[in-house]
Write a structure and sequence with these properties.
The protein is of the alpha/beta class. The chain has helices spanning 2-19, 70-79, and strands spanning 63-64, 89-100, 103-113, 119-127, 138-149, 155-166. Strands 2-3-4-6-5 form a five-stranded mixed barrel.
Length: 177
């Protein structure tokens, strides 16, 4: 699990440090579980880049992560989890899961490309105590970000989901920003 979450986080950081071009990734309707095939860490970094995130908090105080700035907004949550812990976060993406030992870890992700063109997944692990969708379903989740301790003492993020909806209309599966 640590490696998968690490991959997601480092993919986000890589895109911001090096810069993704709009043509670096293509919009695809295929679902891949690239989360399991990449290796990085979901750790907060002391070496952060100043990123301006458009305030996308709606009238109910919910932080809405949209597909136009998905990578930037997810990255901001990873870098500044305390700023988001009191308000729910809403996002859409592909449901995927990864088995680790006897546990199954649940994720809402979108596909992206790293600066060197490798496929990465961007999104969040989440916990949810009700019915789980099928891998590849397009879902909307609403939950609060919680900081978790990794096995190696690092900090990570998990969404404590209060609402999960399977949507028929899919958004952009591959994002560039």
């Amino acid at each position: 699990m640590k490696k998968i979450v690490t991959v997601i986080f480092l993919g986000i950081i890589t895109c911001f440090m090096v810069g993704c071009t709009p043509g670096a990734a293509s919009n695809s309707n295929t679902t891949s579980n690239s989360t399991a095939s990449t290796s990085a860490a979901n750790t907060t970094s002391a070496n952060t880049t100043n990123i301006t995130v458009v305030n996308t908090t709606n009238s109910e105080g919910m932080f809405v992560i949209d597909e136009n700035t998905f990578i930037t907004q997810c990255n901001d949550v990873y870098l500044h989890p305390d700023e988001y812990k009191d308000n729910p976060i809403k996002l859409e993406g592909i449901y995927t899961e990864v088995a680790h030992d006897s546990d199954v870890h649940h994720y809402v992700i979108r596909n992206a490309a790293s600066a060197d063109g490798k496929a990465i997944s961007v999104g969040f692990e989440f916990k949810y105590d009700k019915d789980i969708p099928k891998v590849g379903d397009w879902i909307e989740v609403i939950g609060k970000a919680e900081t978790i301790d990794g096995h190696d003492g690092s900090k990570g993020i998990i969404l404590d989901v209060s609402s999960l909806t399977i949507l028929e209309k899919r958004g952009l599966e591959t994002v560039t920003k």
